[in-house]
Design goal:
mainly alpha
């Protein structure tokens, strides 16, 4: 009984720590669009490196979370990890830990959604910047070709 309670608490702690990392990632990525718009690609690369390091840490938490979930799946004889199913099969003396776990997950979901939106917006901004930055080069190339076609260099 104590071992399972510890696993539930450890899982909650892992989600809480992962939440802190995702908030850091969100904070680091919040200035990306401004860097892109201002053409500060060198600083953008620094930001992306920081985010990559944080994402690596988040991935390590994900592995730990997956391991703990698998242990709970085996213990409670579930087909997959699911908080609603876990609530149904877990004895009543685990309910407090399950409530805490659900609270941790419910805090994590909106941050993940916001992070996903931020990443989508940053990518769209970068794509727009790339298209815009290629435009003048293409026009210059066309002007150069037109000039050569008319015998000018």
């Amino acid at each position: 009984m104590r071992e399972i309670r510890d696993k539930l608490c450890e899982l909650t702690k892992a989600y809480d720590e992962q939440l802190l990392l995702y908030r850091q990632i969100q904070e680091v990525g919040s200035g990306e669009q401004e860097l892109i718009r201002d053409g500060h690609l060198d600083r953008l690369l620094e930001v992306l490196r920081k985010k990559e390091a944080l994402l690596t840490q988040a991935g390590e938490f994900e592995q730990r979370i997956q391991s703990l979930q698998n242990q709970l799946v085996v213990h409670f004889d579930l087909s997959t990890f699911s908080l609603p199913q876990l609530r149904l099969v877990a004895p009543v003396y685990y309910q407090e830990e399950l409530e805490t776990l659900e609270a941790a997950v419910s805090k994590l979901l909106p941050v993940l959604e916001a992070l996903e939106n931020q990443e989508r917006d940053n990518e769209a901004c970068l794509n727009k910047y790339l298209v815009a930055s290629q435009g003048p080069k293409t026009k210059r190339a066309q002007i150069g070709l037109a000039g050569r076609a008319y015998g000018k260099r």
